[in-house]
Structure formats: C-alpha cells, structure tokens
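INFO batch 0412 | record 1 of 1 | parsing
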Amino acid sequence: MLTGLHNALLAHLARWGLRRFDSDAAYFRWQRERLSPADLSLLNERIERKRALGAGAEEEKSFYDLTACPHIVPVLYSQRYDYYVEIGPRVASRIGDARSVLDFGCGVGILTTFYAGQFPDRAFLGIDRSPASIQMARRQAAALGLANVRFECADVEESQPAGPFDLIVATHALVQAERDPGLPSQSWRTFERPHDSRLQQEFERRTGVGRRLDRLVAALASNGRMIVFEKTRTLARRIPFQRALAARGLSLLEPPEPIRYRLVEEIADDGPFYVLGRGLSRNAGLTAVAWDELPEPDEAPVFDITGRSGIVRPADEPLYENHWPSAQRVWNQLQERQILKERTTREPDGREFHVELGRAGSIAYVYCANTFDQRQIVIVESQRAELVEAYYDEIVGGMGTNQA
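INFO prediction complete | emitting tokens
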C-alpha cells in the first residue's frame, strides 16, 4: 500500500510544481532562476523576523502569507520535498475508516489535497491562520477538482474548530517554538525529569502546545484518533510533549517512530511520528502502547579496551570516542575511576553542565554531561593523557562561572 501511496504522492507533488534536488548548489541555482532578487531579499527579511527572539503569531503569519505567493510556493516548498515523501504516505495509510478529517496547520494544502485525492468519499477540512495560505489551498483544490475538501482561515488560539472529527492530523503545527530547549533533567547524572506541574505548564505555555492541544482534543470524536509529528526529537522536548499528550487522554496506538529525511543536503532527525487514540476502552481490540521516557537507542560502539590495545593510531586519534547518550553507560562502567579534575556549573535557569578529567586503570578520559541530555566521553591510553588534558582545559575555558 505504501508503494502505491508513494508513487501517487510523487505525481501529486509534480502537479504542485515541486522538484527534488540532491545538492544545495542545484537547488539555489534554480531558486535564483525562479525568484527575483527582490523576492529573495523579502523572504530573508521575513525569515529573520520570524526567528527573532520574541517573535509571535504576527511575524509567523507575515512569513507564511509571503510564501503562499503562487510563484514562490514551488520554489520554497521544494526544500521540503523529502519531508512530504516521508509524512504523506504514513498519514494516508492510517486514515482508515475516518469519515471526517481535520488537517491542523495545513499551510498551502500540499498534503491536505493529497489526502483528499486519495479518499474522495471522506470529508477533509484544512485550517491555518495564514489567510494567503488558505487562499492558495482553495485555488489548488479547485484546480485539482477536489470536491471533498474545504479550507478555512482559523487560529485555534482564538477559536474552537467545529467538530467532532474522527481524525485530526497535526504535522509541524503544534510546537511552534523550534528553539525552545525543553525541560532539563534533574541533574547532569540522570536523564529523568521530575513530574513538576509548574515546569510542565511553563513548557506548554512557551511552546503554545497546551492551548492548541486543548482546543484540538475538544474537537476530537469520543473515540477519535490523532496523528502528530513535531520537532520534538530531543529527549528534553520529547518528554514534556508526550506528557502534554497523555494528560489530555491521548494514548499511543503504535510505538512512536523517529524519522530522518533531507532538506536538500541537510539531514533532519525529526519526530517522533505519533499515532494516538482517545477513548480506547470504547474501541474493541485497541491496546495502548506504553509511553517511553528513555533516550533513543544509539549506534555508538561498545568500549572494549582488550580489543583496542596494541593498535597503532595517529597521534591525535583517541582510543575511543562517544557523543551519544550511551557515553554515560561507558563512563559508569569504567573500573576504579580516579577523578583528577572536575567542574560543574549551573545556569540561572537551572541547567547544569559537568566535565571531568580522570584515569581508570590504563586509560585516561574526559567525560562531559549536561541536563539537556548531551553526553560525551573521550578515552586515550594513559601514556597519551596530555590529549584529554588539553581537551579538558579547552572545555573548561568555554564554561560559565556559576559553580553548582
């Protein structure tokens, strides 16, 4: 089924004028051919205003209103070609028996019109707070001959969508604060977050996810489903986001799926992709999947000093290096650790950062950890300890002055 949906989506993207590029050079050459210098200057200005500290709904609407211009849509949204390829078939394959579908934050309607075209006997509604995006979506739906989809300019911050809907889709629409770091862990020694209602509410307020979820869940049918895909891959964002979903009676129907895709050459590690259900007790045969607040499994090799000794290495190459969460496990397993130097700082917002230089048997190491789940360990043979000593000094030189 996914193969058929994939091929149908490629044809759909072509009708929108989108193209896939493998290199930034080719993409930006095409961009310069299609857009004038004035267009590019205005786009850059709106992007900066949207990203600026303190930017809100007006700056966001101004940006998306500009990007909805017919000559800009194919060029700008071609950057997200692989995003559509990954998300479109996944959502479409899970529409199932839903008769009414709401696509929240539909933008210009690229994926909404794809879903409507695949399911002509279902009713689709796309909403977005950008008036120009909605106008573009309506024009394109008419051009595609779709009679089963409507588009409305609406902001859930201000009004409640008229439901109930059997399925609500929200992809890159719920969590708007892309730079928000999330919630720190209890200390640099752990990945666990306290169940602190004040911190949770503050996260939901900063990112806007609390009010949006409240409005959407209220518009969901009593046994309805939600499909959600946001930029919440880091553990510090994933945990409070999942807690916000669970607190509103939403349960996992499938294990969350992290997704990787390209933005031309740039790699985006995104998601996870959530399929959620409401009122599972009324849905025979549906079983909830347990929420998981652990770091993702990573691909770092296991540290085994017996298998690495005796190998001749370049002077600046470590015996072992790990930048993944599993670096903490390696650090914990070092036998007879002897700390030579260490420093821990605490920022005014409570964030902690720790670095230590140590020895363990025949090795020397530097270990770094912070409360936003970043971990790193670098190990060398004792006779090359000056490598990690220099690295330790470099890290300490860039740290703040607030001692924990």
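INFO post-check: The two ends are 55 Å apart (CA to CA).
INFO record closed
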